[in-house]
Known about the structure:
Layout (H helix, E strand, L loop, with lengths): L2 E7 L4 E7 L4 E7 L4 H4 L1 H19 L8 E6 L9 H5 L11 E5 L1 H8 L5 E6 L3 E7 L2 E6 L11 H17 L6 H10 L6 H7 L6 H5 L2 H9 L3 H25 L7 E6 L6 H13 L4 E3 L6 H13 L5 H7 L2
Parallel strand pairs: 1-4, 4-5, 6-9, 9-10
Antiparallel strand pairs: 1-2, 2-3, 6-7, 7-8
Helix pairs in contact: 4-12, 5-9, 5-10, 6-9, 9-10, 10-11
Amino acid sequence: MRIYLGVDGGGSKTRFALIEQSGRVLARHEEGPAYYPQIGLEGLRTLLARGIEATLKLGGVAGSKLTFAFIGLPAYGEDRALLATLDAVATPTLAPDRHRCDNDMVCGWAGALAGEDGISVVAGTGSIAYGEYEGRRARAGGWGELFGDEGSAYWIAREGLRLFSRMSDGRTPRGPLHAAMRRHFGLETDLDLCAAIYGKRIMQRSQFAQLSKVIAAAAAAGDVQAQELFDLAARELAEIIDATRQRLQVPQDTRLAVSYSGGMFKLQDLLLKPFSALLEGGARYRLAPPRLPPDIGAALHAARLSGVPLEARAIAALTP
């Protein structure tokens, strides 16, 4: 029996999935963030070892029986000097010749499109797009929170704070976002926000990104300027898809499949609807709802890398 392990490392959560060749899910497990610039390489090693061992135990599978594993890691490939270190980060828990690492964007694509040609965009803590077409691979976005990750939770949080400062100064009219931020941080004066942010009360990238929920709630409460941030997020994500398509050299007359994953797309009215309208407004794309979650996609990709990809009926068995 061939058994595959998929690991979808994220900026907020890391999910593990164990499946067999027939498409039966043996186990799923969840750990914290796998963003090594935040938790450190040793923290990443510990997280993966703990998560892999827990998943194998839940599935009743010995490590020696594992056929192949694929581990998607955020920020993988963004520092060439660390590639060898990251490729070995799961050893000795996993045998070197029975697993492979890559960027977590591959997990989103493999799950959303079940490994078929097309582009998948991820909008979670960060944002990135990845696609494959006729054997070619390409990515766009994923430049990190300081000057990229447009449309992500971190980006929304950062832009929402900027909007709050403009509302406080009177540079733009105050909307529900202003009061929502004051409540969230318990501010006595608006400038106390500087101590809350720069005073390191928010230490981690994933914690900072959680502020996007405050901005989303304000937008849902009718804050027009907060709503405009989500419209802009949709446009930014669509541009990332266009850039990926160009890099894939997809013919102009080809209607390419596009899918999506990540927590931001759970905001149906705020983000998914305007994003869908942009993509479906022309003849270049066919929007496809994600078929499988990224952790299952990672396991599916592990089977592909092993040389024995799952058959269509097995993939159908995995589909919720």
